[in-house]
Amino acid sequence: MPSSSLTASPGGLSLAAPSAARPIDNHVAQTPRRAVPSHATALAFTPSSAATRVASIYEIVREICRILIAPPRFYYGRPYPGLLCSLTRVSRFVSDVALDVLWEKQTSLAPLFQTIPRVARRLVKWRRYYDGWEFLDSDEPDSEIVKRKVLKIPCRHQLDYDRESESGNAVDDDGAGAGIGDGVSHEKACNDDIPVEGAPVEDVCDSDSNSEASDDDRCLEDDCDPDELELTDAEYERFTHYARRIRVLDAQRREPWRSRKIFVDNALLFAALRRGPILPRVRSIRLHKEMDLLIHGCHIVDIDTPSLVGYSALVVRDFESFHASPLCPLTHVRDMTLPPDPELDVLAHLRHLPLLEQLHFGPVRWIYEVEDSCPPPAGFYALRSLSISGIPRLEHVQIILSRMSSKPLRLRSFSHRNTREMATSADHTSACDLFRELRARLDVDYLEQLTVSTACCMLHEPAGLLLKDLCAFPNVRVANIRLAHSPGIDVDEVLDVITSAWPGLEKIFIRNNPNESFRYGHLDDPESGTRRHGSLAGLVPLALRCPRLSVLSVPLRIPTESQAIPRPLEPIAAHAFAARQVRVDVRKGDAGYRVDEVAAYVASVFPSLLSISACDAGSDVMNRWKKVEQKVKHGPEETGVMLQGSSHGAVAL
After folding, report:
1. Global pTM?
2. Which tens digit of pLDDT belongs to each residue from 524-544?
């Protein structure tokens, strides 16, 4: 059958004409066909279609574009979108791919609105809005704080005023004043200085309106109503040309080079919202605790189910007009970060999203417990990762879990951590209740990554009792146990319990601060000073457990010179753990002047050690651990301790 091939053309990719059929050699034609193996799939012998090849080429070009704009490896700097300028001129196909990459991730809506030619940057005084109440910081002495840059479409009265005040300035080619044309031209947006995530917003526009900043930059003329602002068909078509390329809106990111923010005027925002959702194809949404989209005006952002569209959506509500418009539909969202409302009404709108795989609840001050005898509806069927942060009270985390779904969640990952200190508790009841709720609400066979936090409690609690419900999850590979500086939980016990319950562990992180003994000096507990950190003897369970372990991070304390270092463990010939390569972090632990003894013991537990360090310690401590690492890697002759051939001086496992 004649075949077709893909060729590049100035306008994009096209299918070449079918090639002429070649004569078939008689000898080849008479050769019997090779038998198809029984295990082969039909896909392996099916010629790729033109659509498949086009998709493959798209992926290749997109990856090339991403590599071009990515910052150098190990350098956390800004991307370089300007490197794609030449690619946008190659062909329409390559230009579309380059634009997809440039617009894929955004941290603000400002670059998108700057693509509208009529949009200008205006200076207005700083206004803060809280639950509909307005505060004007008119007494602020710092003018840089008082003024903010706002994107808006000036009315004709404002344009006339700007022309009069800037009569001495040159007029651009279109005959507009300096306040006009701050939007990005089509050629500029497609080629050179495209206003994309990664380029400073301040540098996208060349000039601001030089008019004196007013309280809110509103026109006071009777015939001017900002709520009647409309976008033309051409403006909206241009706007959606870039909006449909945005896949990730990450309003949590704060790049260091973008110190000053550019806000979007409320009237301009709703002029676009009246046309339809601004982000129709977004797949990931990350909003910080105020759910601030850098909009200048009296508004609030939340999740609702608009009656006109019938699907759950991220909506923007205007306090003045009580109008709510969907910012983006949520039916295709796979990753979402947002703060929950105190009543947890947001769960009803997220529960039935068909593609939601990752959900992160951010900080919230309080969550109300509602006495409801009815169990929550079943849902969150696609959810695989649930993360909760910034909620220090374990009772609130338990309430969230209890109201998510009546059927066990098939999570691969659960995480609860707090950036600040955990709430102080009189006992460990809140932690035990939360862990019991986890066991009841999660499918025990699915969980692989687990991060939990305990309350800050002074009472001693055996790790076996505290973690017994967590031990019901047999397939945990990554464990992160955060002990909240509690003196009542023994780190060695925690290490023993989790390595026994989770033999498939690959990474272990135990967080605690062993140097905060001043907080608990009044306790009549002689062992409180030793429980908060691990010991060398506490590493014994790892010698013959967790064969796939690759990372161990534990607050370790090395005995002082007056105390004995444990004797090295007796090696077992040819056991599977001899080749296990592990990276160890001891947090603030210090080997002191006992490098040789410490190295001998560490080598008996981790014979194939990759590295050992103290990430929270100073350079001197790090250098001593570097010596320990070198001695372990060079074998027994470096440690000065005989580990082979005799059990003398060694502890049998």
Report:
1. 0.76
2. 555 555 667 888 999 999 888
